[in-house]
Amino acid sequence: MPVLMRFAAGFCTAVIAVGLPGTAEAQNVVVFAAASLTNALDEAARQFEQQGGAQPKISYAASSALAKQIESGAPADIFISADLDWMDYLGQRHLIQPASRRNLLGNQLVLIAPADSDLKVVIKPGLDVSALLKGGHLAMADTDSVPAGKYGKAALEKLGAWNSVRGAIAPAESVRAALLFVSRREAPLGIVYATDAKADPRVKIVGVFPEDTHPPIVYPAALTASSKNPSAARLLEFLGSPAATPIFEKAGFTVLAHSGGA
Q1: Which of 139, 140, 207, 231 could be stapled to 111 by a disulfide with Cβ–Cβ 3.0 to 4.6 Å?
Q2: Is the pLDDT reported for residue 164 higher than 50?
Q3: Is the per-residue pLDDT at 165 higher than 70?
Q4: Is 146 helix (H, G, I), strand (E, B) or coil?
Q5: Is pLDDT above 90 for 36?
Q6: Domains and CATH numbers, the chain
Q7: What is the DSSP string of 75-99?
Q8: Roughly what angle, to the nearest 10 degrees, separates helices 63-71 and 84-92?
């Protein structure tokens, strides 16, 4: 453990860290991750730390917001997006380390309702989502920028339902915020990922969107271009390793590929 020595002079306080060799190796890893990863990634981070890894410090939000923060200079070691577009966005701006990029996980898009709902929906072309709402709102992450919202809009367009419900959308800043609208009964229905629904016992899945109604849901991860933290590469390797697979599968994710162990 580093020893912290403080010297106060007037209104200024200097903090000097006197550490042992390898202190930099064990510095915290700052991770910016899509909100839908919250439960599973928290568990994976705990396991990584228990196995001797550095402590991950994780910030969760919409992938769009996190990518913009990284573009603005926010310090992060790893970025995990809920779609390819926002990872591509950073890649085009040379803000990730291209060789580190990998597709970690997949997910499903679902329609949810409060847990005591008796609604069951077969999602197919011609589905009248507006009628299912019965005058209420459809909770969705922002359809212009947030991956879950973009997937949801694409699915509704493919099904021919978008124009009838676009005026009834309750927009949320992230998919977890959309989940809360339904969980708190502020909206009768919502579109989220299957993993979000599994994480909240106050909601239930009432329908699953066919995979051909929206682009494939892929979670890419990469080291940021500014990261100089050796522990970040170890954490990223761990997240793609067989050791992390049970954590993500238990949460409902599909593990896309293994990176060779941690």
Answers
A1: 207
A2: yes
A3: yes
A4: coil
A5: yes
A6: 24-106+218-255 (3.40.190.10), 109-213 (3.40.190.10)
A7: --SEEE-SSHHHHHHHHHTT-B-GG
A8: 10
If you average pLDDT over residues 227-247, what whole number do you get? 96
Q: Which residue has the higher pLDDT, 27 or 152?
A: 152
Residue type for position 121: V
Helix (H) or strand (E) run with residue 63 in it: helix 63-71
9, exposed or middle or buried, with CB in 10 Å at 0-12, 13-18, 19+? Answer: exposed
- How do residues 103-113 score in pLDDT, each as one tens digit? 999 999 999 99
Cα distance between residue 151 and residue 84, in whole Å? 12
Digit-coded pLDDT (tens) for 91-102: 999 999 999 999
Indicate left, alpha or beta for 196 from its phi (over 0: left) and psi (-120 to 50: alpha). Answer: alpha
Between CA 27 and CA 55 the distance in angstroms is 7
